[in-house]
Specification:
Elements (H helix, E strand, L loop, with lengths): L1 H25 L2 H11 L4 H18 L2 H18 L4 H15 L7 H9 L5 H7 L1 H16 L2 H10 L2
Helix pairs in contact: 1-6, 2-4, 3-5, 4-5, 5-8
Length: 159
Amino acid sequence: MSTMHTTAMLFMIIFGGHIIGRFIVLTDLTSSLIGAIDTLELSASALLVVFTLMYIVLGMILDIWAMLILTIPFVFPLIVAKGIDPVWFGIFVIMMCELAAITPPIGLNVYVMAKVAPEVPIGEIFLGIVPFFFTALAVIALLMAFPGLAVWLPGLAFR
């Protein structure tokens, strides 16, 4: 019975994210947002900061799959045009999606923890992720400052 409740809760969260994602597709919000960002003609670093903020906000209302499906087709051409390594960008997007998985109110991973540890209030779990959130942001900032860190190991594999 407990497994059924947990599964139903997770599916409702995922379903809600897909409904919001469908709304965003139907309203053409993603392409409008990316078009507005493109008209700013930002540097590569500034563009990545904007994308970081964008993925954090999207993570508050969408699940990971919806974010990937809605953004990558529009964001990738901007990244390539700015000369950013596509492999590095893939690592960046996955890290941002994982960061979004702990961002309220969707924060799917937080709700999983709430069901695993029902004696801990969800507010306390969200407070507990704050250090991890800022640590992940620091790692992302480090990767922005030193992009070679993210592609060093894959570079060794393709020599």
